[in-house]
Amino acid sequence: MRIIRCKNYDEVSEVAARIVAAQVTMKPDCVLGLPTGSTPLGMYSRLIQKNKENKIDFSNVTTFNLDEYFPISRSNNQSYYYFMFENFFNHININKENIHIPNGETTDPEAECASYEAAIEAAGGIDLQVLGIGQNGHIGFNEPGDFLESTTHITTLTQSTIAANSRFFESIDDVPKKALTSGMGTILKSKKIIILASGKAKSEAVKSLLSGKITTQNPSTMLNLHKDVTLIADEDALL
Ligand code: PGA
Questions:
Q1: Contact of 226 with 209, CB cutoff 8 Å
Q2: I need a surface site. Which of 104, 139, 179, 224 has the fewest CB within 10 A?
């Protein structure tokens, strides 16, 4: 795993935005795998800026988001659908038909997951997957446990994730208990992966990721099986 050590969050965001921009410049019709969360916000705002300055063209780019709460309405301002349009897609020249986010409104989550997985395959797979990392080492909503799932699936959030995400909801009881998420296999099939980490709260998960030991108790450690992963982390996350 390559490690890019950054001074702070701004530098993490800048480095990540440059890598995404380089990917889109090299392959204008590339497929990007995208995360939500607080961490990628700085990267998204820089990509919006580059798009406004005509330094990056998203018109032929296809995107697949990692995950979505379930069940949740797309108009709910805590849905990842809402988050992505609010913080990124509404501000760039992407073709809206090329945007894919697991549908948290579905009445048949298993079918939704199967067709999501098939759509990634049909698009030729993900060229560059951008990841955040949970305090418990989750990536997407692949939570620590006795086993991990390979393909896109419905999952139950851990208490740790519900607690971490409750900051965005009025109360902890409002956090959905389930989610639809790309599986570990879906993520590991990406041609290239960057994983962003900022802040002390991530340092334990990052330490375990960098130990090289693979455990289902920290799903991010599976990234050690991939040949092209770059960790972009600030000093606090690398403590
Ligand atoms: P955060 O979430 O960026 O809001 O810390 C990361 C994650 O849970 O994957």
A1: no
A2: 224
For the CA of 35, the closest atom of ligand 1 is 9
DSSP strands (E only) in 75-191: 99-100, 128-131, 153-156, 178-181
- Catalytic, 138? Answer yes
CA distance 202 to 172: 21
Percentage with pLDDT > 70 across the chain: 100
pLDDT tier at 46, thresholds 50, 70, 90: very high
Distance CA 113, CA 182 (A): 8
User: Region 216-234: what's the mean pLDDT?
Assistant: 98
Pocket of ligand 1 (CB under 6 A): 37-39, 132-134
Rounded Cα gap, residues 165 and 79, in angstroms = 12
Cα(27)–Cα(126) distance, integer angstroms: 12
Total-model pTM: 0.98
Contact 65, 102 (CB under 8 A): yes
